[in-house]
């Protein structure tokens, strides 16, 4: 079976609903995954916008998600929910939704999930979101991606 990630809130390639964007409720969308490979000990998740004017912008990063978890509920990315979340590119440890510049056209928000062969990534508490994927790379057993689109 192949690792897949999905959301009951939007399908791959579809518009992200307003309640998950920074200008609105700024709640993280519900996410579900399945098909992890044998040997998976944890997961890492990063949400990034490769269409940002100054280069890839990271909206959320989590690591050390236990292997027996297969979902993140709506709003679980709010700060202080017991997840190992790192500072996003807004400077907040938690989820901050899409907020592309007005009139910049559609942006593609990639929700990237990695199944890892380790239960813990050694990342300093002061690290930023990009550190999650850099630390995860040598441990990746499988990856899955869900893309949502949003424009203002």
TrEMBL record:
InterPro entries: PEBP, PEBP-like_sf, YbhB_YbcL/LppC-like. NCBIfam families: YbhB/YbcL family Raf kinase inhibitor-like protein (TIGR00481). It comes from Sphingomonas oleivorans. This is YbhB/YbcL family Raf kinase inhibitor-like protein. Residues 12-26 have a biased composition (Basic and acidic residues). CDD domains: PEBP_bact_arch (cd00865). Residues 1-38, 73-102 are annotated as: Disordered. The lineage of its organism: Bacteria, Pseudomonadati, Pseudomonadota, Alphaproteobacteria, Sphingomonadales.
